[in-house]
Amino acid sequence: MARRCDLTGKGVMVGNNVSHALNRTRRRFLPNLVNVTLISDALNRGIKFRVSAAALRSVEHRGGLDAFLLKQSDDTLSPLALGIKKEIRAALAS
Question: What is the pTM of this model?
């Protein structure tokens, strides 16, 4: 399973450990991913996502999963999130 947020696309970054003597060794910075079930008001059900803690705060800030997905650009969303976004648009249109 990829270490990538389903909603924001945040993934692994690479950098260096730098010692006091300025020796540099490569390291990985992993995103803080959590498994959550987010409730969609338009679909009246919960959807399981693997999101970063920062994305979870952004979802709450924007007013829930529906508002977040409708505002988020498609290029950062996972295929699962794109499908949910399409379902939400169809549910709101009807």
Answer: 0.85
